[in-house]
């Protein structure tokens, strides 16, 4: 990959990461630790592999910039399914267990569970709205 193509690829990768503030903050911290020699390359790769484990496009995206000898030692990222959205079931397991406990505890008070779920729904809507606004601002700044 030629230099300008590589630079464009890197810029695109970082821009996509910036749409996910928590992931981007951890990525930035890991890269800073590497540049200040708090992490060596092996620990940096380990950190990023863990960070991007549920984001195959990010996993593939950052691996492009690894030296070939490091790329060869890493497992292939899991294939992306266009139909599957959201985190894998292993990530959701604690939430499912919590909801089961909540249902047991308030079995005779269905209103409590409905209220809880309604609060979660509103929180999700507000979070999505804030994220959409943040993306618009980011696109506006890039112009």
Automatic annotation (TrEMBL):
<protein>
    <recommendedName>
        <fullName>Histone deacetylase interacting domain-containing protein</fullName>
    </recommendedName>
</protein>
<dbReference type="GO" id="GO:0005634">
    <property type="term" value="C:nucleus"/>
</dbReference>
<keyword id="KW-0539">Nucleus</keyword>
<dbReference type="Pfam" id="PF02671">
    <property type="entry name" value="PAH"/>
</dbReference>
<dbReference type="InterPro" id="IPR003822">
    <property type="entry name" value="PAH"/>
</dbReference>
<dbReference type="InterPro" id="IPR036600">
    <property type="entry name" value="PAH_sf"/>
</dbReference>
<dbReference type="GO" id="GO:0003714">
    <property type="term" value="F:transcription corepressor activity"/>
</dbReference>
<dbReference type="InterPro" id="IPR039774">
    <property type="entry name" value="Sin3-like"/>
</dbReference>
């Amino acid at each position: 990959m030629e230099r300008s193509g590589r630079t464009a690829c890197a810029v695109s990768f970082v821009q996509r990461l910036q749409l996910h503030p928590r992931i981007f903050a951890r990525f930035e911290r890991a890269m800073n630790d590497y540049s200040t020699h708090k992490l060596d390359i092996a620990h940096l790769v380990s950190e990023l592999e863990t960070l991007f484990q549920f984001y195959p496009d990010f996993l593939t995206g950052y691996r492009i910039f690894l030296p070939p000898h490091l790329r060869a030692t890493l497992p292939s990222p899991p294939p992306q399914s266009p139909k599957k959205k959201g985190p894998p079931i292993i990530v959701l397991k604690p939430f499912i267990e919590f909801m089961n406990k909540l249902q047991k505890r308030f079995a005779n008070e269905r209103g409590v569970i409905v209220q809880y779920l309604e609060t979660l729904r509103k929180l999700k809507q507000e979070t999505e709205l804030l994220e959409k606004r943040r993306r618009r601002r980011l696109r506006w700044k890039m112009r």
